[in-house]
Specification:
Chain lengths: ~110, ~120
């Protein structure tokens, strides 16, 4: 079964607001990655956080990782309409052979 | 465009026919992953290949499905005798290194419809 589970399933916010998505996973990991998928397109890698890191920033993105709770969050600050997409977390399940994806959070940013 | 290229983008097959999905990884990448995505769902791992080798096919059905990544040419995901339940988007991804710290680069997928 898939390892990551995102929460919420869907999120709708006004442009300029912050969006927070959460991901929970089940087993130990080497790292956790976040991806974005626009409708009808492939996934695009956003950010990777290693298991020994607690927080990472990239532009308007902030990712946290709590390995004791097996959870991660993705914060998008000052959201834009172009941020409308589905967001997935992915973990390697400590094997490196497979990347387990969650079911995603569908984000809608209203202009 | 040096990204991951998948073709065709859309494929329609009747039940019982064969479907062949192609994936050319990014230049310099020798690790290819195939995933399947059903509507409103996440991606489910199918198979991981390196050049001429299947490394992990634990996510691929034992029957009707096969994958290859020859020394020359694209990776091929082959579905024989397709059924309606095979209708999905199939994504290919590639990476440069065989470790978990290398992000995956995805193609735009092949949308298979079985009628």
């Amino acid at each position: 079964s898939q390892q990551g589970e995102e929460d919420p399933q869907a999120l709708s916010i006004q442009e300029g607001e912050n969006a927070t998505m959460n991901c929970s996973y089940k087993t130990s990991i080497n790292n956790l990655q976040w991806y974005r998928q626009n409708s009808g397109r492939g996934l695009v890698h956003l950010i990777l956080i290693r298991s020994n890191e607690r927080e990472k920033h990239s532009g308007r993105l902030r990712v946290t990782l709590d390995t004791s709770k097996k959870s991660s969050s993705l914060l998008i600050t000052a959201s834009r309409a172009a941020d409308t997409a589905s967001y997935f977390c992915a973990t390697d399940g400590h094997t490196g052979n497979q990347f387990y994806f969650g079911t995603g959070t569908s984000l809608t940013v209203i202009p | 465009n040096a990204g991951v290229m998948q073709n065709p983008r859309h494929l329609v097959r009747r039940r019982g026919q064969e479907a062949r999905l192609r994936c050319s990884p990014m230049k310099g990448h020798s690790h290819v992953y195939w995933y399947r995505q059903l509507p409103e769902e996440g991606l489910k791992f199918m198979v991981y290949l390196q050049k001429e080798n299947i490394i992990d096919e634990s996510g691929m059905p034992k029957e009707r499905f096969s994958a290859e990544f020859p020394k020359e040419g694209p990776s091929i995901l082959r579905i024989q005798q397709v059924v309606r339940g095979d209708s999905a988007a199939y994504f290919c991804a590639s990476s440069a290194q065989p470790d978990a710290n290398s992000p995956l680069h995805f193609g735009n997928g092949t949308r298979l419809t079985v009628t």
